[in-house]
Amino acid sequence: MADEKKMTGEVYHPAPEVVANAHITDYDKVNDQATKDLAGFWGKIASENFEWYQPWEKVLDDSNAPFYKWFVGAKTNIVHNALDRHVRSANRNKAALIFEGEQGDRRTYTYQQLNHEVCKFASVLRSMGVGKGDRVTIYMGRVPELMIAMLACAKVGAMHSVVYGGFSTEALLDRIEDSKSKILITCDGAWLRGNIIELKKIANDAVDRAGTIQSVICVKRTGQDVEMVPGRDYWYHDLMTLPVVDPNAPTEVMDAEDPLFILYTSGTTGKPKAILHTHGGYMVWTATTLKWVFDLKREDVWWCAADPGWITGHSYIVYAPLVLGITSFMYEGAPTHPYPDRWWSLVARYGISVLYTAPTAIRGLMRFGESWPNKHDLSSLRLLGSVGEPINPEAWKWYYRVIGKEKCPIMDTWWQTETGGFMITPLPCVPLKPGSATRAFPGVVVDVVDEEGEPVGVNEEGYLVIKTPWPGMLRTIFGDPDRFVQQYWSRYEEQGWYLPGDSARKDEDGYIWVIGRIDDVIKVSGYRLGTAEIESALVSHPAVAEAAVIGLPDEVKGNIIKAFCILRQGYEGSSKLEQELRDHVGKEMGPIAKPASVAIVDSLPKTRSGKIMRRVLKAQEMGQDVGDLSTLAD
Ligand code: PRX
User: Fold this and answer.
1) pLDDT at residue 2 in the model
2) C-beta pairs of 572-578 under 8 Å, 24+ apart in sequence
3) Whose CA is nearest to atom 7 of ligand 1?
4) What 3-state DSSP class applies to 164?
5) Which of 356, 362, 414 to mutate to test the pocket of ligand 1 (most atoms within 8 A of CB)?
6) Closest residue by Cα to residue 14 from 382, 521, 531
7) For residues 420 and 283, what is the distance between their CA atoms, to the nearest angstrom?
8) Residues of 103-119 as b/e, b for ≥16 C-beta within 10 angstroms?
9) Whose CA is nearest to atom 18 of ligand 1?
10) Are 590 and 582 in contact (CB under 8 A)?
């Protein structure tokens, strides 16, 4: 443990009993072991904690970097480790998933029951011709069937491509087309804040325009009438009673490096990128990071309050908890429905012991005051977590004091869709500083550097880089390996470092403080949105000739979107049109992408090569110095 006296700033030291009982009690020791022999370290973890149909010939193959391979030659399937092996053990009758719907309906699946549902749905998919390497798009609310669908895809060797249920037609259409999915799995609707989000209606619009989808499977959730196209659309509950359905369907044997899923995320420019993760490395990485960082034990009830449609939900709702054989809780709806104590009532009812959420949710709930959490018994909590954006110290302290009652360490985990799992994060034995994700996970070497790759001074801002490969790393961008190299590995090509696209600083104690994105990604309520996609939604409106969007700081959401639009000839600016443009983005992209405000302008600052200089717009909006304008065209 670090020496208390030597650390700078505000430090929260872990209680001795927390450290003594943790899986990892000495960060430096484990980190040393990992960095000295990375392949040996991960080889040992992988062989002791997971089942493989066939062992690997080599743990790490870096001969074709940055196309790294892990557990080369090994055979497994993540579903074998998440379900099959538990069903053979005493875990069979343990709760795998406890679910509560927004309307108050409750369901529990044991490992045995969840496995049956997954096997049944896997045989449905097989009967539709889905197999190794196929892509299946999933567009659903936060319900157990989403998890079942993902696991069934993995079981038959198909790649799922989950599209967040808060996205709308355009976003769904783009992702279906890029992935060339043959099957879409959706719901009639999803409950949110007491309202129905009409997922099937949006899905119909997208499927009508996408050329690739042959069949649509629809889960009945909200029960309103929906349009089902004969010969194309099938009810999930009908398919699950067909004679082909086999509750003991076999699990496909996969190569460790075979794709498990693709997940679209926004990057610097252009269309969203399909990040590809694999069965072997991703499994080892997500399960090990979850076990060590949140110190999960058999008796824990883990609640990752993210949406399965984002990487946090993929890794830490669906896969890692099941691989570890623990009990997860999932809640369908909004934290404030019907009252701002919904979450706290759930913690008390289900005895949640570890809660993992985003700063924006904490800030949102903080606004309602302490009386709401104080109405409930939160004594089951023993660890808390944060993810998605930097957590401001005020929110950190409120979370620590009001929710954790000053006894639950807060694990502020920095990572990305691309990294698969936690990268910079405390472990329960590491002293905490509110607002810092502390240090890299054992074996990960990170630094903060300048343009040339030289380390910047203490507390100076620079580019965050990752200098070592890790098992959970993205393998490529599906369908675009050049872009994978260009986007992540070209800035520090000579050094062979990975560029996450964040700026950060490192303090006197070597603690990392992530500042924010250096590219055109905007984080709204922790959701990662690309300016390009929102701008293209704006110009799809007949009134808009050109558009630029920027993120502006917001107390609760972290950032809000401001749009600047140049109108086509014949259109005139008005508050009615501004409102219409906001609604248009909401309809095309989804409510989370809706600009908070729209400004109609005559011109946009551009470079001579025609690139919009968003930083100039942002500086102007924030009353800051616009900086170097030498590349400005006009
Ligand atoms: O900017 C960082 C921010 O979220 C980005 C990754 O977004 P996404 O791929 O959607 O994954 C989010 C969930 C893992 C990062 O580049 N970010 C994520 N976690 C943190 C964070 N920024 C600061 N602190 C964090 N703990």
Assistant:
1) 47
2) 573/600, 577/543
3) 416
4) coil
5) 414
6) 382
7) 9
8) eeeeebbbbbbbbbbbb
9) 388
10) no
Q: Do residues 450 and 407 touch, judged by C-beta distance below 8 A?
A: no
- Which residue is closest in CA terms to ligand 1's atom 6? 416
At 19, list the tokens.
């450290």
Per-residue pLDDT reduced to its tens digit, 180-208: 999 999 999 999 999 999 999 999 999 99
Find out whether 77 and 251 touch, Cβ atoms under 8 Å.
Answer: yes
* Residue 202 to residue 19: CA distance in whole angstroms: 49
User: Would you say residue 165 has pLDDT above 80?
Assistant: yes
3-state SS class at 615: helix
* CB-CB contact of 563 with 534 (8 Å): yes
35 with 450: CB under 8 angstroms? no
What is the band of 608 on the pLDDT scale with cuts at 50, 70, 90? confident
Query: Distance (Å, rounded) from C-alpha 576 to C-alpha 573?
Result: 8
Q: Which residues pair with 448 in a beta bridge?
A: 464
Q: What is the pLDDT of residue 634?
A: 65
CA atoms within 13 A on the CB side of 477: 19
Distance 449 CA to ligand 1 centre (A): 19
Please tell me the distance from the alpha carbon of residue 305 to that of residue 429, in angstroms, as a whole number. 24
- Whether pLDDT at 631 is above 90: no
- Tracing tokens 């579903």 back to the chain, one arrives at 79
Q: From CA 321, how far away is CA 371, in angstroms rounded?
A: 32
DSSP-derived letter for residue 93 is G
Segment 565-593 mean pLDDT? 96
Rounded CA-CA distance 632/518 in Å is 19
Token pair 């961008």 in the structure block, residue: 477
Q: Ligand 1 within 6 A of 309 CB?
A: no
Helix axes 531-539, 575-588, angle to 10 degrees: 120
Q: Which has the closest alpha carbon to 554: 527, 581, 532, 530?
A: 527
Q: Which of 338, 367, 310, 300 is nearest to 150 (CA)?
A: 310
Please report the pLDDT score of residue 5 as a whole number.
58
Please state, in angstroms and rounded to a whole number, the distance separating the CA atoms of residues 570 and 582.
Answer: 20
Copy the structure tokens of residue 140: 């659903």
Burial class of residue 280, CB neighbours in 10 A (0-12, 13-18, 19+): buried
Token readout for 259 is 């794709």
Residue 270: the pLDDT is 73
pLDDT at 1: 45
Q: Judge residue 144's burial from the number of C-beta atoms within 10 Å of its C-beta, 0-12 exposed, 13-18 middle, 19 or more buried.
A: buried
Q: Read off the pLDDT of each residue in 422-445 and give the average, rounded to a whole number.
A: 98
Q: Looking at the chain, how many residues does it have?
A: 634
CA of 414 to the centre of ligand 1 (A): 6
Residue with the larger pLDDT of the pair 627 and 78: 78
Token representation of residue 322: 């099941």
Q: 350: which 2 tokens?
A: 């289900």
Summarised one tens digit per residue, pLDDT across range 611-623 is 889 989 999 999 9
pLDDT higher than threshold 60 for residue 429: yes
Does 388 contact ligand 1 (Cβ within 6 A)? yes
Which residue is associated with the tokens 């054992």? 442
pTM (two decimals): 0.96
Is pLDDT of 34 > 90? yes
CA atoms within 13 A on the CB side of 165: 24
Residue 627 confidence class, pLDDT cut points 50, 70, 90? confident
Residue 435 pLDDT > 70, yes or no?
Answer: yes
Nearest to 166 by CA among 22, 48, 332, 330: 332
